[in-house]
Structures are given as structure tokens and as C-alpha cells.
Amino acid sequence: MDLRFSEEEEAFRKELVEFLEREVPPEMEADYDGLDLSQEQFEFAGVFDKKLAAKGWLCMHWPKEYGGQAASITRQLIFNEEMGYRRVPSRASMGINIVGPAIMLYGNEEQKKRYLSATARGEAEWCQGFSEPNSGSDLASLRTTAREESDCYVVNGQKIWSSRAHHAHYCWLLARTDPQAAKHKGLTTFAVDMKTPGITVRPIVTILGSTHFCEVFFDDVRVPKDALVGEKNRGWYQAMGTLSFERSGIGRVSSSRRALQDLIAYINQNERYGKPLSQDPIVRQQLAELQTEIEVARLLCYRVAWMQSKAKVPSYESSMARVVGQELSQKVARAGMKILGSSSQLMRGTPGAPVEGNITRAFLSTISNTIRSGTSEIQRNIIAQRGLGLPRR
Q: Residue 246 catalytic?
């Protein structure tokens, strides 16, 4: 495995970094998790996504016929790494990284023409309708139904934790189309227009006071049959393919690397009890250990990208990268809170808030990292069964 970047790839990284430094003002940088945006940041993200699209960077890994550049996996890795490190806000990530690739795999030609070009231009935003109040880790137990009629499917049910559903144009929906089948075999995926009558979106206020998570209610929503993507009652297998796209990114690790760099800058500029924080042996050991873990997590993500570049399908390898990366984000935030001491409780905008309040927000926002999109327990089960060959418990 050769993890060195070519001269051409390093030149692309340099061009990208210069572009981001020029086009993204510091006040437009998002939180470390990239989800909680102010209204100004949200509007900026919409404009900036279109700038990326104009340069061919927004979905560079897509085939050219769908608006991409057919760029290499490695170039896409570099893009995601630098975007995550610089906390660039985006509104297109769900459509570009998850829904779009799934439609390429399972959609028909008409659906590809309808959805992919608009998504590639940054003009179609998506939310995901998978989790339900009682169906998260056990996703196959979901209860939202799609009853087939002569000209449509009638959808009834509720989804939860749908990021930015109140802004989305479409919902990537998983619903039960055969109540009599085994729970894994009666599910179907749909691309649902969020303007369809009967859809109600209710934002959820998080511990940070943000509203990027939403509940979505479907009350006798009539979805046209051409919104069904792939095969009827094969939605579970398609959903697993969709989630595999979500579990193999570098962004979360580069975001933790940025948080650590912010902490290093803080301890180099501040004292405690009359001595520089940078000379505190406990602080030094904490940061050194985090730096080591960041490099390990980075290499795990690089391995996933390398496998994809060799036409291999990552399985437990993606779960390893995910569980290490998500737990690392919590470790960095917890360490930051200890190092900052009592001032760590000061939020963004408060006079004297260290590191602009970002560590505080990271501590609160990363609580959900080991739960959403597949808990750490689920990831460890995948590693145990597929990686170590251990039996199911």
C-alpha cells in the first residue's frame, strides 16, 4: 500500500487550499461537526456550493455524464480532507455523497437525468428518511408504510433525525411496502418531493439550540410510482449500500485535527499558575496521545480510499475508520474542556470565550457522533463478525 500522493495530487491540494483561503471568510467557517449553521452561514453555503459546482469540484468523483469529473478516489479524498479541516459549510453533502451515488447504482435513466444533474449543480438538496422514533440501530423494524394503489404509493408514518429536512427539496425515503414479508425483505426506497401534500416537517431543538435535525410526518402522502428507486421490496439492500457511502469519510478526522491544532495554539499563548500551559506535563501528554490517535484514524480512512481506488469493497474497514474517527472527536472535545478549565463553559459570542467557543460546542455536538448513522456498538459488531470472523452473539 503506497500512501504517498503524486505531484499532480499535491498540486490539486495546493490549488484547493488557496481557493478555500480566498473564498471562505473565517466568520463563515462552521462548527467542527459542520451541521450547526447560522442563517448567514447557511445562505453562504448555498452560494459556495454553486461555486464549487462551477469549478467541477462539488461532485468531482461522479461520472462526467452526471455532472462530475470522473476524478480519482484519491483526489476526492484530498478534497474531503481539506474541506473538513477548514470547516467549510455545505448544503449539498447528503445529495452528493450519499443519495447521488445510490441513484447511480439503483435508479433508472429517467431518474438519473431528473435528479443527478440538479444535485451536481447544487440546486437540489436532500434529506434522509431512514430512522424512526423506535427504529434506529434496528432500522429494518421501521413502520412507515407505502401502500400501492393504481397510480401511486400512499405513505404514512414518521421519520426522525432527518438533517435539514426543513430546507430539502427531496427526501431519500425508506418505507415498508410489504407488511407480510420478513422485516428485511419488505422495504422500498423512494425519492420523495418534499412539497408533496401531507408532508409536515418539525425541527428539533438540540442542546446547542440549533434546529438542523427534524421530524418528518407523512399523512396519506401520494407518491407517484416513478419515484420508486430500484426494485420494490429490495430497499433494505439498497439502504445498506447507501449507508456504506456514509461510513467511509475523512472529514471527521480532519475536523478533529483542526480542533487539536486550535488547542495547541491556545496552550502556546496562555499560562496557568504563572507557567506556560505548553510546559504542563499532563497537557503535553494528552495532546501527544491525541495526535497519535489522529494519525491512526487518518491512516484508517486512507486505507478505505486505497481499497476503493483498487476496486475493492470496504466492509469492516469502513466501520473501523468510522468508530475510531467518531470516538476520537469526543476525546478531543473532552480533552479540550479539561485543558480550558472553567472558561470552557463560555459559549460562542461570550467575551473571553477561549477558542471562540468552538471546543465547548464540539463537546456538546459530538455527544451524538457515536449514535447517529450507526452506533459504535453496531460498528464493533460489524468488525467482530466480518473482520475477525466471530459468531453472532
A: yes
